[in-house]
Write a structure and sequence with these properties.
This protein is mostly helical and 145 residues long. The chain has one domain: Potassium Channel Kv1.1, Chain A (2-Layer Sandwich), CATH 3.30.710.10. Helices cover 63% and strands 4% of the residues. It contains 8 helices and 2 strands. α5 runs antiparallel to α6. 17% of the residues are buried. Pfam families: Skp1 (PF01466). InterPro entries: SKP1 (IPR016897), SKP1-like_dim_sf (IPR036296), SKP1/BTB/POZ_sf (IPR011333), Skp1_comp_dimer (IPR016072). This is SKP1 component dimerisation domain-containing protein.
Length: 145
């Protein structure tokens, strides 16, 4: 958590308003939530995992972390974005696990609604051209083997 002091200094100078970090605007609520996470985990031992992906696939999550990420989905996505931009790996792992868990529990219809995906907005001609293109690629791919 080496840059934590610098981040707090930047926040104090901004008078609690939005903070620009790496060309990204972070609202104060999300920024303070990331700071709270860093404060809580400041004395943790470094991860023994070889890569971040090992952390993501391991099922362990502390009760504090589970309670910490019990927030609205959009707030969770904002927090994951902050973790990525500020390179807070442990927060990135925790938020990624939760985002993955929440999306895996959504139905196809819920995902479409969340991402504002319209079922069928192609014309018949566009559908036909897509089918032709897919068939062309499928044929060329199969002919390689």
């Amino acid at each position: 958590m080496g840059g934590l002091i610098d981040l707090i200094t930047v926040y104090r100078r901004s008078n609690g308003k939005r903070v620009n970090v790496l060309s990204a605007t972070i609202d104060d609520k999300t920024f303070m939530k990331a700071i709270d996470f860093c404060k809580h985990h400041m004395d943790d031992e470094p991860s023994t995992k070889k890569t971040v992906f090992d952390d993501i696939t391991s099922p362990e999550m502390s009760p504090w972390d589970k309670q910490f990420i019990s927030i609205e989905l959009q707030d969770l996505l904002d927090l994951a974005d902050v973790a990525d931009r500020l390179d807070i790996k442990k927060l990135m792992v925790v938020t990624s696990k939760e985002v993955s868990h929440r999306f895996s529990n959504m139905s196809k219809a819920e995902k479409k609604k969340y991402f504002n995906i319209i079922d069928d907005d192609f014309t018949e001609y566009q559908k036909h051209m897509i089918r032709l293109e897919n068939d062309y690629h499928r044929y060329n791919w199969e002919s390689l083997y």
